[in-house]
Each structure stands twice: as C-alpha cells, then as structure tokens.
UniProtKB/TrEMBL annotation:
<dbReference type="InterPro" id="IPR003593">
    <property type="entry name" value="AAA+_ATPase"/>
</dbReference>
<dbReference type="Pfam" id="PF08352">
    <property type="entry name" value="oligo_HPY"/>
</dbReference>
<dbReference type="InterPro" id="IPR003439">
    <property type="entry name" value="ABC_transporter-like_ATP-bd"/>
</dbReference>
<dbReference type="InterPro" id="IPR017871">
    <property type="entry name" value="ABC_transporter-like_CS"/>
</dbReference>
<dbReference type="Pfam" id="PF00005">
    <property type="entry name" value="ABC_tran"/>
</dbReference>
<dbReference type="GO" id="GO:0016887">
    <property type="term" value="F:ATP hydrolysis activity"/>
</dbReference>
<keyword id="KW-0067">ATP-binding</keyword>
<protein>
    <submittedName>
        <fullName>ABC transporter ATP-binding protein</fullName>
    </submittedName>
</protein>
<keyword id="KW-0813">Transport</keyword>
<dbReference type="InterPro" id="IPR027417">
    <property type="entry name" value="P-loop_NTPase"/>
</dbReference>
<dbReference type="GO" id="GO:0015833">
    <property type="term" value="P:peptide transport"/>
</dbReference>
<dbReference type="GO" id="GO:0005524">
    <property type="term" value="F:ATP binding"/>
</dbReference>
<dbReference type="GO" id="GO:0055085">
    <property type="term" value="P:transmembrane transport"/>
</dbReference>
<keyword id="KW-0547">Nucleotide-binding</keyword>
<comment type="similarity">
    <text>Belongs to the ABC transporter superfamily.</text>
</comment>
<feature type="domain" description="ABC transporter">
    <location>
        <begin position="11"/>
        <end position="250"/>
    </location>
</feature>
<dbReference type="InterPro" id="IPR013563">
    <property type="entry name" value="Oligopep_ABC_C"/>
</dbReference>
C-alpha cells in the first residue's frame, strides 16, 4: 500500500474532566490510514471518541501523544502550516443549517474559503464550478439565495461546494446525512461517491450508522471508548464481524438476521477506562460464558489488547475473536 494521504499514528487525546477530576481519554491510542481515493467509515456510538479523532485529524485538536501525518509528513501546528494543511483536508459538518451563516448568500458561503486564503483569482468561475460539481445547476441560479430559501439537501450541497472550492485531497465528513430526510440521503451519498470517482477525492466519513457505511465506504474502522476495536474492508466487517461490539451494532439493522443484541449499561466513563478489554463490562460473549469456555475469560477481564494497525488489513482487538482464529 502506498503512503496514506492522511494518517493517525498512536494518537491520544486527553481532556481535563469537568467533574470529579481526572483526565478523560477521548482518544486512547489510534492508528488509522486514509489512502488516496479511498472512503473510510469511522463508526461507533455517541461518545466513543470518533468526532474528537476527526477534529484531531483536521488539526483542530492537538494530540496529547502520537502524530497526525499528511502524505507521510508529521503535521506542524504553526499558523502557516495549519492554514496550508486545511486547504488539503476539508471538513463537512452534519448540520448545514448550523454551519451556514443565515445572513450570507450561497455565493458568499462558497467563496469564503477562497477569501480566507487570499485566493480570489477567478472567484466567480470557481464558485460556479464548485456549486456545479456539488450538483447545484445551473449554479448562477443559487448565487443570491440565502440558506433559508434552500431545502436541507441543497444546503448540504452548498457546504460540500464550500469544501470543494479549495480543491482538497481529503474530506472529513461528520455525520454528513444525519440531519437529512431519508429521500435525500441517497443523493448526498451518491454525490460523495461521484466526487471520489471523478476527482480522486479521499474521505473519512464519521457515522454511527453501519448501514451508511455499507453504502459508501471501502473500509470500516469501528471505535469504542477511544480505541479502534475492529477494522477491515467493508464487505468483511459487515458480513462477518468478529468483535462482539461490531456484532451488536450490526444486529439492530433492519435487514440483520436474528434478534438484536441489547448491550448492558452505558459505555464506561473515559476517565476510568476498565482494565483488560475495554468492552468486557458490556460484552455479550463474556456474559454468556462463551469466553470462559474458550479459555480467554480472565484475559478479557485483565489483559489489555494491542493497538490495531491503521492499514487495509482486517484486524480485531478481541481475545475471544483471536482465539477463534487459532
């Protein structure tokens, strides 16, 4: 595999806890690669650390430890370096209504990136081209409209156009269709796939929805309590998941066979990550006695697992799943 266009290497991000003292381990050792022209889905429950990891990859958070790499070069945190980096790696937020200034026209919203970077050459043509690539045609018809005059899908296309105008290499999309009607979601997902095919654009799509991952991703990374616990090609992860957490997430999809897996309790407090496998206090395999029968129950409760590699190979952080492989 060639050098990843965007990568996390042993990334950790900690925050001071608001209550009770201690430090919350929001991201607790993550390797993740995004290759050129690849769409990677980062999947997990709310609070698992996926948005913090995305913000760190964007340079909006500085890691407590580890590195973010752009084309193999560690990210520098000077103002000049970050400004250049953010041309190459652009963010698309989940709520277009919240990310668009209601007082700015569509033209101004899309042109904002060019103006921030002092790059206003051929501004009108570039705004029109970005809107057109985002599926708003003819683009001139949208120039003087305001966000409240657009549908939710049109607003999300304006946000995507604002990212495209800087010709990025990677888009980081945080729940890009979560706020849209079901009828519009497919259109936005199809747009992201078309941009990948036409422009070679890579994307990291942050989502809690494994169904979305199935429709758009080449590869999936499943995150739990600050760490990636399973990763691999989308077909493998979604048809033959090995980690009990991935199996539980998949079990609630409408087309999933069998009964949904109901996990016990809430994810643990990130200031008090449990010893052993971090999922063991909620694990249905351990609770059923299957892990003890396989001779790995005590390891599940007391032995931490290695941090997974971030590349294209399938990998899982689960004592029971690894024992089943042997």
């Amino acid at each position: 595999m060639t050098t990843a266009i965007l990568a996390a290497r042993e990334v950790r991000v900690e925050f001071e806890a608001r209550r009770g003292g201690g430090r919350a381990r929001a991201v607790d050792g993550v390797n993740l690669d995004v290759a050129e022209g690849e769409i990677v889905a980062l999947v997990g429950e709310s609070g698992c650390g996926k948005t913090t990891l995305a913000r760190t990859l964007l340079g909006l958070e500085r890691p407590t430890a580890g590195q973010v790499l752009h084309r193999g070069t560690p990210l520098a945190y000077t103002s000049r370096a970050l400004k250049a980096y953010r041309r190459a790696v652009q963010l698309v937020l989940q709520d277009p209504s919240g990310s668009l200034n209601p007082r700015h026209t569509v033209y101004d919203a899309v042109a904002e990136g060019l103006r921030v970077h002092g790059d206003v050459t051929d501004e009108r043509d570039r705004v029109a081209d970005a809107l057109s690539r985002a599926g708003l045609r003819p683009p001139e018809r949208f120039f003087l409209r305001f966000p409240h005059e657009l549908s939710g899908g049109q607003r999300q296309r304006v946000v995507i156009a604002g990212a495209l105008i800087l010709d990025p290499q990677v888009i980081v999309a945080d729940e890009p269709v979560a706020s849209l009607d079901a009828s519009v979601r497919g259109e936005i997902l199809a747009l992201l796939l078309r941009l990948r095919d036409e422009l070679g654009l890579a994307a990291l799509v942050v989502t809690h929805d494994l169904g979305l991952a199935w429709n758009i991703a080449d590869r999936v990374a499943v995150m739990y309590l600050g760490r990636i616990v399973e990763t691999g090609p989308v077909e493998k992860i979604l048809t033959a998941p090995e980690h009990p957490y991935t199996q539980a997430l998949l079990s609630v999809l409408p087309e999933a066979p069998g009964e949904p897996v109901v996990l016990r309790g809430e994810p643990p407090d990130p200031t008090r990550v449990p010893g052993g496998c971090r999922f063991h206090v909620r694990c249905q395999v351990l609770a059923s006695g299957a892990a003890d029968e396989a001779g790995v129950g005590e390891r599940c409760r007391g032995e931490d697992l290695a941090i997974l590699g971030g590349g294209e190979d399938s990998d899982v952080a689960c004592h029971y799943a690894l024992a089943q492989r042997d």
